[in-house]
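Bench notes, afternoon.
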Amino acid sequence: MPDSLPISLPGRIRLAHLPTPIQPLDRISKQYSFPFGGPRIWIKRDDLTESGMSGNKLRKLEFVVAEALKQGSDTLITAGGIQSNHCRTTALVGARLGLKVHLLLRGEPLAQADGNLLLDQLAGAEVSIHSPEDFAKDLKRLFNFWSDQYSKRGHIPFCIPIGASDGLGLWGYLSASQELITDCRMRGFRPDHIVCATGSGGTQAGLTMGCYLLGLGVQVTGYAVCDNATYFQTKVREDIRHWSRLSGNPVDLQSLQVHVNADYIGPGYAKAEPPIYEMIEEIAALEGILLDPIYTGKAFYGLMQELRKGHYKGSSNLVFLHSGGQFALFPYRHNFSFNRV
């Protein structure tokens, strides 16, 4: 196993507080894993990459925004759900660097801004809210329209895909894979599994590619929060193919395994049933860890069910990547057991 990635990283802007901590979840392990022959559970705290800009998206934007500035851009245009962690992080990064940010958000207008949308507005981002139907049908047109509008005003726009998940954003978690493995080595173990929530595919793609380049036998599994397993297996490979084309590093996609668990999506994206909220309450009370109902809570719930089924039996150590998202707790506060009517 190489001590470092066998490729050079491109330019980046240092925005995140790295390395983020890794810590064991021994009370969770004792309850959900050990009785079923499963591994010790660890958590990589990428919810601590920064404060307001916390989460996995900041690692990706270090590379994406570096490229935007390299191209002379002064305006960032991106898209996501109305409680998008990526959009909130982009808005705050733009404010920090003096860049204009325009967000194309999927959802219905809120009577009062809350959660990530509140932070978008505090950061001074321009916000356009579109119905889920229009968003799904016309997102490419919306990107083109606003890019043309800013160009006509004398700006130089740079469009960032949902979640910053493409071959450029992939560098964020390709580089993070080395940090994670170094963390584990310093704690005296090598993980058998790395698990993350997968909503746009980029984090999973970066971790998968990083572990592949490091020559590890570790299995990276994305717990899907929307769409289906086939979609993410295709999306991860598309991002890796795009990365390969941009970077000039050939990849044997046939030998690259992409693992997706899509059994815990529930009613759909940003829709969680009561057991998810109960899981969020439980880990907060047991470990002092805050998960969110859109991404990490849903993925962690799925992981706990799989542990109880014995699907990780015989493994020694598993790392769950905490990709952030705590600000989304607030708009969904009414779903917690102590707030239900």
